[in-house]
């Protein structure tokens, strides 16, 4: 939200003046708009009961262009199973040249 005025306005917040130079996310829950256990259960608790009618509704997807293009340089860490779909976010974010994937340890050629 630091770099996206539209996103900050939709969330009803004022971005802080603290500069975010990098971001590290480990096993985060990024997708809340899918028809799975997370998407069916958590959205109304995270965003409120009528969030689909709010200005923030388009931003519940981490794939929204205002989110992906406003990320600082980022490190996203996932597991071998990637059940939180982090690799999908990396593929989308790579298109904006904001995220570079560097892996250490065990590699899976399907995840490059």
Uncertain segments: 99-105
Number of helices: 5
- Give the overall silhouette: globular
Largest sheet: 2 strands, parallel
- First-last Cα distance: 28 Å
Please tell me how large the radius of gyration is: 15 Å
Estimate what percentage of residues fall within beta strands.
Answer: 5-15%
The average pLDDT is 76
Short summary of the structure?
The chain has 112 residues and is α+β, with helices and mostly antiparallel strands. Helix content is 27%, strand content 7%.
Structure commentary:
- InterPro entries: AB_hydrolase_fold.
- This is Esterase / lipase.
- It comes from human gut metagenome.
- It is a single chain.
- By secondary structure, the chain is α+β, with helices and mostly antiparallel strands.
- It has one domain (5-11, 21-103).
- It has helices at 5-11, 37-41, 43-47, 65-68, 86-94; strands spanning 23-26, 74-77.
- The longest helix is centred in the last third of the chain and has 9 residues, at 86-94.
- The two termini are 28 Å apart.
